[in-house]
Specification:
This protein starts with 9 loop residues before the first strand and ends with a helix. It is globular. A five-stranded mixed sheet has the order 3-2-1-4-5, with helices on both faces. The protein is built from seven helices and five strands; from the N terminus they run βββαααβαβααα. It has 183 residues and is of the alpha/beta class.
């Protein structure tokens, strides 16, 4: 278990969002997923998941992506949490872990997720490390320096739903942990 000078164990806060587009200043989060793991990449709970109420317009691309997977229908449902409700629930999840852990945000192509989360809910990640654990960096490093390792990485299985994307990110992290460090 990795610790810091605070004697709190470092935990990975895996995060993923699905959105109405890639403009972090103007597009909306449709779904958020969070899950905390230990340094062996073992989930420590069931995680947090929420769709977010939205019935506005989406691009043809987003409509084609999120109609078959049911996300747009879930977001348009009358009982879907509001943006405020989802943010408060997500913050409560993060806060519970911050009591006992140093949280290091983690994910795949994490910069976008951190940026849109911070724009949408400015305080959601307060108390988390400013550093990031981005598993996509391992893929890029393997492509540059060990193409065979990159070619043997697990296939993406996602249907663009956050909990499936998080499962893929964890599968990649486990693969690269073993392939690059033998651990």
């Amino acid at each position: 278990m990795t610790t810091t000078t605070t004697d709190k164990p470092t935990r990975l806060l895996w995060m993923d969002v699905e959105t109405t587009g890639l403009d972090t200043q103007h597009d909306r989060i449709l779904e958020i997923g969070l899950i905390v793991t230990d340094d062996n990449l073992t989930p420590l709970d069931e995680g947090f998941h929420s769709t977010i109420r939205y019935s506005g317009e989406t691009s043809e691309f987003i409509t084609a992506m999120h109609t078959p997977n049911g996300l747009l229908a879930e977001c348009a449902a009358p009982g879907a949490p509001t943006l405020l409700e989802a943010g408060e629930q997500a913050r409560a999840y993060v806060s519970r872990w911050l009591e006992s852990s140093r949280l290091l945000p983690a994910g795949s192509s994490l910069r976008f997720d951190r940026d849109i989360i911070s724009h949408t809910w400015p305080h959601l990640l307060d108390g988390c490390s400013h550093r990031s654990f981005d598993v996509s960096v391992f893929y890029e490093a393997a492509c540059l320096w060990s193409p065979t390792i990159a070619q043997n990485a697990p296939e993406s299985t996602t249907d663009h739903r956050v909990m499936h994307c998080l499962a893929d990110s964890l599968a990649y992290a486990r693969y690269y942990k073993k392939a690059l460090w033998g651990a």
